[in-house]
Amino acid sequence: MDILLKSMNLLDPGSKVNEVADLHIKNGVIHKIGDIDSSEFDEENIFEFSGKYCVPGLFDMHVHLREPGREDKETVVTGCNSSAAGGFTGIACMPNTTPAIDSAEVVNLILQKAKDHLVDVYPVGAVSLERKGEALAPIAELVEAGAVAFSDDGVAVKTSAILRNAMEYAGMYNAPIIEHCEDPSLDDGAMNESFVSTQLGLPGIPTVAEDIIVARDILMAEYTGQRIHIAHISSKNSINLVREAKAKGIKVTAEITPHHFTLTDDSVKTYDTNYKMNPPLRSNEDVKAGIEGLKDGTIDCIASDHAPHKVEEKEREFIYAPNGITGLETQLGITLNELVHKGILSIEDVVYKLSVNPRKILNIPVPGIKVGENANLTIIDDKEIWTVDLSKTKSKSKNSPFDKRLLTGKAIAVINNKQMFCDNEFKQI
Amino acid sequence: MPLSSKHLLGLQGVPAEDIQLILDTATTFREVLDRPIKKVPTLQGKTIVNLFFENSTRTRISFELAQKRLSADTVNFTTSSSSTKKGETFKDTVRNIEAMKIDMIIVRHESAGVPQYLTQISEANIINAGDGRHEHPTQALLDMYSIKEKTGDLKGLKVCIVGDIAHSRVALSNIYGLISMGAKVSLCGPSTMMPMGIENLGVKIYHNIEKAIHENDVLNVLRIQLERKAGTTIPSVREYHNYFGITSERIERFNRDILILHPGPINRGVELSSEVADGPYQIILDQVTNGVAIRMAVLYLLGTRP
Ligand SMILES: [Zn+2]
């Protein structure tokens, strides 16, 4: 099939493309770029995207798909639908499923479920069997099956010994360790430890619980010469540690979630459990440090930590409610609204943080906008004003604090694997 | 003049006039408690649920008695939240109770925020009987009432709250209430028992019990939770007693005019020596009696609020 995307701002930092042009996609492959005569195309295959950005398909490297085990919260397919609706053509899914992604069977199952989807799914394997931190998961076998990185996400890798061995072992395959940084002896809280937690009477999780593991992991990365990726960084000190480590040439990368660069622990004052996540929302100073880290490149990418939970699980006592919020469908909007429109990042920076860098960290080829490449694209309208409506989201779960939030900018179409998602529907192209 | 709020969730932000009104009303009910027939028909026809997710026999009995003295119909619902931990029981429990056309809910829960949450799903008046480490307003009110009964006034009075402030629900309520009534509030305890930023509330912090005894008019001594993981916040109960315990020697040496309160139950030989617990400086049993009067006052004021 031939489709024509008209007069877009093509923006592909990898291929150094930054121009206004039409795009002819033939059977899912970029066939021609330039000023293209639309008379040869069927009318329904011409898309007027004038003034919209066309960028390499966005990628979210921290998604909880919940399958296998909690298909009532999300499945591979609903999670992929949510990704497409949010503008993402690729995601990495975290291994804290039941069973955990600690065997080739589970990797195969996920890949099988995602096989025909527009969205590419890259499983992250568990560092340790059952994520218990006691014995290494079969890392080589997981790599062979398709795992792109290793993590015991939900918790930090339990011991320095397991961490060291995992880094060295995974290093043979150039797969990074993705760390959820939290010292388990300091983690029995329900929100950030601060004057706010004191006033709310909720047990706190101190920022130093994160900093300690970030420091440990950086030291281990330096010692082993291997790579560490800090997931959902949230504390100012941790960001400083990463900045210093990068300056020393240590192989450390980091991601931040949209909620950690927009919200503070002040939001918890209503005891709304949609503000309960781990790491918790931090102070204003930490938020500012996050933004600074994004600006100066200390923080390489933005990732949602999409964590679907059922309404009835969230609607309960604050200390017992599960951690996490959905994020795939609000992530780009919040990024554009809070970072681009406020002059903190350019659209090009966003393409790095949400498309190029996460793939580079995971050794996944970055799609280019050039003739002969498979069309893997996200079309962004950075000016569209819209209101988040959770009831209309594709995710199976609706746990987000961003419902009813007014945002400027969103993805209006994604293209990948010879499919297009546009106007709320998937079609073959 | 009615209370400004329909609920009593805590003392944070409660105007001094409201606190004064509750204390004054309690004085009238305190007299009722000394009569041979201790019952008034004030809340006849009102249905009150004591919804206790955490066991607290004392507080529940105090509320229950206050309700009976006011002729309200009461239902007790005690459940361990471990049974609600897994399923969807918490919200369902509350919905069920709400469906029974209840006028007031007295709630105790180990999670902060539950009373506030109840106001969103129930039409009833909600009274917080202790939520997590957050607030326990009727305890603070009865503490203030008991202090006032002995000293005549709270204004300018120096009150020190002693013990595990971080894990206490009584401390915050006392701090808010006492400060708004013009008292000078301080805290005393090991630094590991002080929650982050508590000094922002305008309270002085002592780590020396003798100094605290010497410089204050009143000590409100909190219970040390012996069941808390031993050795993590304090080295031992023995060391706690040696460095933060209230003993007769300390009182006699540093301040013979001190007034000692304790919300109970007491760990004798830990926060108070037995001598102090039974001695002339304490008003622990007055607090218990006054607790009923305070709860009657709160129930009455909320139950008859237009
Ligand atoms: Zn995590």
Topology:
The complex is a heterodimer of chains A (429) and B (306).
Chain A: E1 2-12, E2 17-26, E3 29-34, E4 46-48, E5 53-56, E6 58-63, H1 76-86, E7 88-93, H2 104-114, E8 120-126, H3 139-145, E9 149-151, H4 160-171, E10 177-179, E11 191-192, H5 195-200, E12 204-205, H6 207-224, E13 228-230, H7 236-247, E14 252-256, H8 284-296, E15 301-302, H9 311-314, H10 331-340, H11 347-361, E16 377-387, E17 406-416, E18 419-422, E19 425-428
Parallel strand pairs in A: 1-4, 1-5, 6-7, 7-8, 8-9, 10-13, 11-12, 13-14, 14-15
Antiparallel strand pairs in A: 1-2, 2-3, 5-16, 16-17, 17-18, 18-19
Chain B: H1 16-33, E1 47-52, H2 57-69, E2 73-78, H3 81-84, H4 89-99, E3 104-109, H5 114-121, E4 125-131, H6 137-151, E5 158-162, H7 170-180, E6 184-188, E7 204-206, H8 209-215, E8 218-221, H9 237-244, H10 248-254, E9 259-261, H11 274-278, H12 284-303
Parallel strand pairs in B: 1-2, 1-3, 3-4, 5-6, 5-8, 6-7, 8-9
Helix pairs in contact in B: 1-6, 1-12, 2-12, 6-7, 6-12
The structure holds zinc ion (ZN).
